[in-house]
Predict the 3D structure of the following.
Amino acid sequence: MKEEIQAYNNGLNPSEKDICDLLQATIERELPHAENKIWHGHPVWFLEGNPIAGYSKQKKGIRLMFWSGADFNEDELSVRGKKFKDASIFYNDAAEVNTEDLKRWLSKSEEVQWDYKNIVKRKGKLERLK
C-alpha cells in the first residue's frame, strides 16, 4: 500500500479505517496493475490514467465510487451521479462490504470505461472507451 493511502486510512476513526483497509486491500488484489494515488483528497485507482474506482469519507459514511459505474447494471450501486456516469455505494461498517460484489464491480470497471482522462480537453463531453 502506498504511504499516502495508508496515511488517509489511518486518519479515519477505527470503523471507517476498517472499511477503507478492506476496500483498499480488495482493490489492490483485484486490480494489481492499476495505478493509485490520493486524488482530490482521497484514494483513487486509475487504468492508463483514467480514474476507475475510489473511496472517500462523507457524512453518509464511506463512499465507494466507480467512475463508470452507472453502466455496470448493478442495483447496489444506487447512488448515481447527476452529470457523469459514476455510481456509488455507502458503507458504515466493514461487515456491510460484500467482497464478491466488490470483485464483480472491479472486474466491470476494467470492462466498462468512459474517458474521464480527456474530459477537460473535450469540454465536459464523455466518450466511451470500452
About this structure: The beta strands are 35-39, 42-47, 50-58, 61-66, 79-80, 87-91. The mean pLDDT is 92. The two ends are 28 Å apart (CA to CA).
